[in-house]
Every structure is written in C-alpha cells, then in structure tokens.
C-alpha cells in the first residue's frame, strides 16, 4: 500500500482524538468512511492513533488493518 499522506495522517489523528476526547467511536468511524479511509492499512501510525482506532474498528463499515499492538 502507498504511504499515507500528511493529510491522511491528520484524518486518522482527528478520528483518534474524537474517541479519546469524546468517546464517540461511531462519529470517528463516520469521519473515516466519509474520507474514504475506512479500509486503510494503519501500520505506520503512532501507537496513540492505533489504540483509539481499535475501538473505531468495531464499528460497522470500518475494516482497518495494521492496528496490532
């Protein structure tokens, strides 16, 4: 898979922050779906994002990979 762009990194950080700050994984999932990132490989993200995105990955319509700790 192609390396994530800086913009895509920002979207993932935003989704992770929605979960961390507001405990809203469904809203974060909707953000990723709308941005076309709901089926992305997240292996290059920081552990902060991965931790929160594991919760988002349980939402319908999201199938992220590369989130293993």
Structure described in brief:
The chain is mainly alpha-helical and 69 residues long. 54% of the residues lie in helices and 0% in strands.
Q: Estimate what percentage of residues fall within beta strands.
A: under 5%
Q: Say how many strands there are.
A: 0
SSE order, one letter for each helix or strand: HHH
Distance between the termini: 20 Å
Which class best fits the helix and strand makeup? Answer: mainly alpha
The radius of gyration computed from the alpha-carbon positions, rounded to a whole number of angstroms, is 10 Å
Globally, the shape reads: globular
Task: Indicate the percent of residues in helices.
Answer: 40-55%
**Arithmetic mean pLDDT:** 96
Low-confidence stretches: none
Oligomeric composition of the shown chains: single chain
Structure annotation, total helices: 3
Major sheet characteristics: none
